[in-house]
Amino acid sequence: MQDSKMAIENRTVEVLDDKSALIQRSQDLILSRLQTAIDSRGQFTMALAGGSTPKPLYEALSTLSLPWSKIHIFWGDERYVPATDQDSNQLMARQALLDKIEIPASNIHPMDASSADPAIDAQKHEAELRSFFQLETGFPVLDLILLGMGDDGHTASLFPHTEALMVRDRLITVGNKDGQPRLTFTVPLINQARCVLFIVAGANKRAALKQIFAAQADETHYPARLIQPQGELLWLLDRAAAEEL
Ligand code: 6PG
User: How many contiguous H segments (helices) and E segments (strands) does the chain have?
Assistant: First the structure.
């Protein structure tokens, strides 16, 4: 794939002193987008990120009195494990947030990894999204998609040099991490969002961030470069991660 010039028109990068400041800022940004969405459309649709960075954010959100009946929770990706597995992104979010708040079960839309065939589960989740957004074709617009970034530049379960990066005609596809299947939002689905919010912390992310923000770099090697939404693109970095930018 061609090197890409990073579209920077709608990208905002904020560097916070430390991870706790980053979590506080990400909470503030989410709350403001949540209020705007509910004021204008009566609901807020948000996809959660997996991994470890967002867990304190979810714990912080669980302490707030929010209109949870108007908030719908999705996931940008999921490991291909049962929802009870310690690796499950769904389990982490339930333990950190969803089990602690009054949110209708029907507002929670996990990626189900139970058919033993990831491609079938990807199709199932795609059908669920299309039904929820009442959209037979095209790409639904989520209000906010929260993303992390791995130290290899992956995001969601869009890993370097994998087929998932090329999928442009589906909402959900099968990712591949070192031969292990994942379920993931596709690049076009993520790029349809009103707001994409990256939260990236730690010195181990420096090298990849340099490539993500470079004027030119190989998108297949650094998949987070592919995330160039038509809506807002917000990057929240802690100082440790942003050191070399
Ligand atoms: C996952 C995530 C993944 C994660 C990055 C960063 O399922 O693991 O969706 O994309 O966001 O790997 O993970 P950390 O926040 O743990 O560094």
Answer: 7, 11
Q: How far is CA 144 from CA 69, 81, 149, in A?
A: 17, 25, 16
**What mean pLDDT do residues 140-161 have?**
98
What predicted TM-score, i.e. pTM, was given to this entire model?
0.96
Q: Which residue has the tokens 């995001």?
A: 155
pLDDT in tens, 49-89: 999 999 999 999 999 999 999 999 999 999 999 999 999 99
Distance CA 20, CA 57 (A): 9
- The answer, yes or no, to whether any atom of ligand 1 lies below 6 A from the CB of 156, is yes
Ligand 1 atom 10: residue of nearest CA: 156
For residue 53, give the ligand 1 atom closest to its CA: 15
Residue among 23, 26, 52 to mutate when testing ligand 1 (max atoms within 8 A of CB): 52
CA distance 155 to 245: 19
For 44, list phi and psi in degrees, rounded to 5. Answer: -135, 125
| Alpha carbons 27 and 54: distance in angstroms, whole number | 10
CA 23 to CA 128: how far, in whole Å?
30
Integer Cα distance of 141 and 32 in angstroms:
18
Query: Going from the N-terminus, what domains does the chain have, and what CATH number goes with each?
Result: 4-242 (3.40.50.1360)
